[in-house]
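Help wanted!
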Amino acid sequence: MSEVAIGIDVGGTTTTFGFVERDGTCVQRGSLRTDVRLDAEGFVAELLDALRRSLDRLGGAHSIRGVGIGAPNANYFNGTVENAPNLGWEGVVPLARMVGDGLGERAVLTNDANAAALGEMLFGNARGLSDFLLVTLGTGVGSGFVVGGRLVYGHDGFAGELGHVIVEPGGRSCGCGRRGCLETYASVTGLVRTVREGLRHGRRSSLSSLGPEALDGRAVHDAAEAGDALAAEAFEATGARLGLALANAAAITSPAAIVLFGGLLAAGPRFLVPTKSAFEANLLNLYCDKIELRVSGLDGPDAAILGASALAWKEFEDDGS
Amino acid sequence: MSEVAIGIDVGGTTTTFGFVERDGTCVQRGSLRTDVRLDAEGFVAELLDALRRSLDRLGGAHSIRGVGIGAPNANYFNGTVENAPNLGWEGVVPLARMVGDGLGERAVLTNDANAAALGEMLFGNARGLSDFLLVTLGTGVGSGFVVGGRLVYGHDGFAGELGHVIVEPGGRSCGCGRRGCLETYASVTGLVRTVREGLRHGRRSSLSSLGPEALDGRAVHDAAEAGDALAAEAFEATGARLGLALANAAAITSPAAIVLFGGLLAAGPRFLVPTKSAFEANLLNLYCDKIELRVSGLDGPDAAILGASALAWKEFEDDGS
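Answered by r_m:
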């Protein structure tokens, strides 16, 4: 009988889950809407229902190692989701216990970027590394720091918020209530903001004709490839901000590699070349030629599920069970 | 028979050592000049000689747990000091092995700030903490990050260079060859540079009459206390830079406390108040009221020896010997 870990990724609009073998094979997957009309109890009831139906379809051919959950505002130590505005859940929700008890399995919880880091370590482009950094570059910027083979959770379970390092004091307003956070510049949203600022300052661009909805990361990439100067400069500026921030983070944890994941990577060299250039230009001499920038090995639809399942595989791997 | 660890702090001008019991009692100490006319072999011969004389005076009443060495450019994993311009040693010097073999004891090596972090954890103001950050604020800025009870060494043994996080792209030139590193602003040297910049810009100050040698951290503090506006603003600016950098570091490792150590602390509230204020103003909401800024509990002449001995106590504590 083969063994699987259940990986669950709770997102703001959709929750996905899958049953993942130790080699990263996802033998079954499913999803449900993270319906903001439901409170946490209602959501967990629907999630458990979907998981049980999926388990029934598996037909008892697999034993379950445990459950790993990636979710926003997740506290690893307590297994709780705390004050998550994106999910519409108020207060502190003991999600790991609710899901674990519901299934009669052990469950563990962290944020999606931390889970993604473990996914890279077990199944992706950080295999064999015990010191690395995973950075997600999507709507926002998330990060998971692995030090000495273990995720850095900090004293409170909330460590690894590279997206909220302030890179420009007094700069762009951030959803966190402060100004100048990295994620206001070095995310897909930040890229689009850079273009919008250029347009507001009267820059000519093929992007000026697009409505607010159509002006997204893909449109900026397409425009840059078609020779639009503003779009090209927006990628340069985004890469420059990120490269410096990564060089600064490297000075703290000295990783063997930094793995990049998420929407911005779709732009390929257009984004990666200025990022690498700024990273290398700003790296302390001591670290030069030692730290590799890599693109995620899991950049597919199962990436989040694999990350969440990796959390369970890692958490429950050495306890003799 | 009581047991001691030997702590050795190798500085640019002076090397100090001591024999330290597990409770932090330093039962004997000594020092020698780190004579830059000597190469590493010559220095180690003198150091071993001094250590043996000191051991003879102890008279065999103590067993030795091991040797801990704090030194610049130290690689923990290899026990080497690598390309240390301050010591005048070229290339890679296997200092831990040379000292360990010379004494017939186990020896371990890291940089002075990492050793200081372990000193705080075993003997100082980080006792009981498994996630904290130690920052030394002297001529430069050093740091040691403790995560989950273990020092962060990184993949290469050189992690924890908070002083070389770039806080002002294109800013002040740094000894590392780059520009805008934290230590060019938030050290005693940085404080004095801020005053000098003010004087060059024509600011009136009681400090303008001092020669280059006399214009030091103490003079700036005395001037600030006597009502000098430029001196007072220099402390404000120094604290503001440091507070922001500490808030950014906290977003990465989420420590329970940040322990501050070194020359800038001599200015007391003059320096601490603006530092705390900027730290709290720039801290991500998630971490507010969770992270304490503390002053070192080891800010005496034995601090560096205690830190180096703590490295040995920590390294050799759980190996059954």
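OP: Thanks! One thing I noticed: The mean pLDDT of chain A is 94.
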